[in-house]
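Input record (one chain):
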Amino acid sequence: MQQIQFLVPEAYDGVSVRGFLRGPCRVSARLLATCKRLPGGITVAGAARIATDHLHAGEILTLRLPVEQDTLPISPNGAPPLDVLYADDAMVAVNKPAGMILYARAGQLTGTLRDVALDYFRAHQEPLVFHPLYRLDRDTTGVVLLARDRYAASAVPETVQKVYGAVCEGTFSGSGTITKPIGPEPGSKVRQCVRADGRPAITHWRALASARGHTLVVCRLETGRTHQIRVHMASCGHPLAGDDFYGGSREWIARQALHCGWAAFHSPDAGPVTVEVPLPEDFQKLLALLRLPTPHFQTEAQRWQTEDKA
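The corresponding structure, as predicted from the sequence alone:
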C-alpha cells in the first residue's frame, strides 16, 4: 500500500488533522474519507489519528492510500502508442492526438486514451491507474495530465495552468476576457451554449496575428466547462476554423483548430513542472496556408504570468 508523508510546519501547529490535510496538503474530502476507513490510514509515528485530532509542529503525518488497479478490459485496437511528454512517480503528461476520446462511449469503444495509457503502463510494469485531471474534446490535441494515484488526482488540479492555441474565423486584434456562463443547449445532448443560467466560465484570450480572414489566438482558462473556448469564441462571432459544430468552416482544416500547447503544474514528486508540445501537422499546415506564425506557448504563458504579477 502506497503512503505519503507530510511534515507539519510551525504555521500549522495545533491545527486539526482534517484542516491540515484538506488545506495545505490539498487532500480531497473523498480521499480523506477513504483513508479514514483504512486500517492505519492516518497515523503519526505509527499511532492512528482521527480527523479531529490536533497536530504539533515537527510531527510527520502519514497518509496511506488505497490500492488501485483498473480491472476493465484494455483495447488499444490499432490506436497510436502513448506519446509521453513527461513522467515522474506522481504524474504523467501525454500528447493526445486528434480523433481520440478519453473514455469509451457510444461510437468509440476502443482506442481511447485510457486504453493506450493503460497498455503503456502495463508494458512498463507500472500500476494500471488512469486519473486524467481534465478532458480534451475528441478533436482537440495537446497536453493531458494523468495522475498516478488518488492523492495526486486530488492535490494537483488546483495548481494546473494551461495555454491553448486556436485559429478563429474573422480578423481582430488585442486581448480580453470572456465571462459568459455556459450550459447545455436546449434540445441537444452534446452542444453547449451561452445562457444566463449556465455555469460560470472565464476565458482569457490574446490575438497574435491575422491573415486571410483568420486570427491566431492563445487562450488561458480559469474554468473548465465543456467546449468552453469553442463556445466563447463562437459567441463573439469568431468560431474556430474547422469547428462546424459551432459555426466554423472546414474549408481549411477538417477539425476544430484547437491545441493545448503548454501546461504547468506542481507535482507531489518533483515540484514545479512545465510541459510544452508543438502543434500537430494539420495545425501547422493550416498556419502555413493562412500565412500565420507559429505560436510559442512558453513565451505566451510567461507573458500572462508577468501580467498577473503586475
